[in-house]
## 1
Amino acid sequence: MLRLHTNALRLAAVAVASVMLSAGTLVAQRLADLTGSWNFKVVTENGTGTPTVTMKQTGDSLSGTYESGRMGTLPFKGTVKGSTLTFAVNTSGGTTLTFTGAIVDDDHVKGDVDFGGQGSATFSGERRKAP
């Protein structure tokens, strides 16, 4: 009898944990709106860049500008699916920088950058706060 009771408690605990994880994912998906200005940090083997990324999210669509001292201001388009974001920046030199990452919370993102098959980097971004 005690064994059945213990198994029932374990099953109940697993069920509650599953519901809580699902609810947390739904809340993160519902609250994810990347619209705004972001301070990014792109870390490569050759150094770190600090571009400003301005995003406009409409549903699952993402657009905006990527601005750095090295490349100027470049437009981009991308998508947001749940807690994942992807966008591509086409440089004047013909390389496409593809950012793929996770929405950590309302004010933070992080992930990887592919330099058109010519290398890679990591990135993190923090939403700029209004003054």
## 2
Amino acid sequence: MAKNFKLFYALLKQHPEADKDALVMEFTDERTTSLREMSEAEFNALCSALQHGSGQGYNRAGMDRLKAARSAVLLRLGRLGINTVDNWNGIDQFCLSKKIAGKRFAQLDVDELKALTSKLEMIIRRGGVKVASSTESAAPSRPKAVAHILIPTNPKYLN
């Protein structure tokens, strides 16, 4: 099958953060920046990576953004008193709350993580997380300026 340059450029247009020369260099092991000089297998691997989101590193910038967004959320969770060191079950339980994110931490994309960072900042500014316990009354009195989020009565995420 011949190289389909039209397909390549259509796929490249869908990824504005990607650089054509850098991609070609990466998929040819730094041999060339020319699409014409790529082998057919290299070209097909590059197109597949652009089309299906896998590949060697075309999405490195996206992964860097995801990593930074996850770090920002984990930092704020630590400020709230949630143990973030090897406590993925606790982090997931916290994030699964409908009032927080409604998803597991690993399933959150960059936009959801940014929204969660803002939400956690708001919680921090307003006094932190209130953990529900069995000794509290059903309707405790709260100051109007402090927002509390009730977490399940078995706070495994604090381990």
